[in-house]
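The passage that follows is intended for readers who have already worked through the single-chain material. We present the inputs for a multi-component assembly, then the predicted structure in tokenized form, and finally a short commentary. You are encouraged to pause after the input and sketch how you expect the pieces to fit together before reading on.
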Amino acid sequence: MISVLLVEDKADYRNALKLILDNTPGFCCVADYCDAESCMNDNTYNNADVALIDIQLPGISGIQLVSFFKEKNPALLCLMCTAYEDGDNVFSALQAGAHGYILKSDAPSKILEAIVEVVNGGSPMSSQVARKVIEAFHRPAQVEYSLTNREEEILQHLSKGLLYKEIAFRLSISTETVRRHCFNIYDKLHVNNRTEALNKFFGKKPHR
Amino acid sequence: MISVLLVEDKADYRNALKLILDNTPGFCCVADYCDAESCMNDNTYNNADVALIDIQLPGISGIQLVSFFKEKNPALLCLMCTAYEDGDNVFSALQAGAHGYILKSDAPSKILEAIVEVVNGGSPMSSQVARKVIEAFHRPAQVEYSLTNREEEILQHLSKGLLYKEIAFRLSISTETVRRHCFNIYDKLHVNNRTEALNKFFGKKPHR
DNA sequence: GCCCTTCTACCACTAAAATGCTATTGTTTT
DNA sequence: AAAACAATAGCATTTTAGTGGTAGAAGGGC
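Having made your guess, compare it with the prediction:
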């Protein structure tokens, strides 16, 4: 028996889903809310397997609700529900911790299928959104900056936010040498400071 | 016309695919190889739109080939091909830069569909593999550090490696104010420098 | 009205980082 | 043996970052 939690502002759609869930063997609707706030103030989310959440909710968005669930009950599987396939929003939701999504235009049978899929360890989503996820996920091609082993080692320590003197102590070399290595690193990477070097070497887009 | 490159060691399967591609309007097979090495030594990969690559190749693996393509011709779309759905390998391939994958057991029509899908910006993959990708992609739960909007904005700029004065210029405020914001940020995050703040706020493990 | 937070700003001081130059030791390549 | 590179290290200088104190203007909440 899969317990589903509904958070959807449109009463018609919410009630329809509830009816379908409660009348399909193997499914049940443990609770339903018309907004995120009332759901957060309740604690039914601890008794559900899957949460079906509308992305566009009045007030606190569905994406924020996912973040909330992720903290309060990480085991809860979040399935997003959107009217139309809004790439960016769906993407943000997945990034926040959602496990898949369905379109409101999908047939009830497809929605039930998606719920089962999520429970079975899948992540139902369209191929287009999958691409966005994949791309954010790709490791940027190693552009081979030919740093020496020692330089990479230094960079590892730099990435932790350590001071030169702390790195020097850990590696049992002088602060001057650490300094020198850094300078050489920045030179090779064509950057001017620690943060740029880390972004470049570890291939990070600065930040979302 | 979609130009496809084949890298597949099983001659039967490779020839069959080639035949299908060359005899389907809108598709053509620009080259085919039985291993990664010979493909890397040629330069046909510059003339293809999509590369269909077997994951299990003798010698250099399909995953390594993807990394190679990513560096040499980042525009080439890599579609992996596997005999059975080996989660870890497929996952690694996607991480290395592949855009989707198909199963050898899929019908020819489905394979052609997947190729079109990739060209159209999609990422064909199973729901199970999508889940693995999604999970690797999830941001760790934000521990809510209650930074103000302005402080988060400053942090965004810090993450690019900008100097205080550069941030000040972009936000049209004084350097002193940027300085002050940073101090407040470090205070709230209980850290002592930029790198630590970035690691903590953006929830990153220092580095692999 | 008053309190509290946020954003703004200046000053002063210390610590650290970034940029130069030079130089020794060892290892590897040619 | 010479040349090239890697790692080490010292010194000097300038710039930037980090830590304090203080304080005014704008906005929300009580």
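Commentary: Residues 84 and 193 of chain A are 44 Å apart (CA to CA). The mean pLDDT of chain A is 85. How closely did your sketch match?
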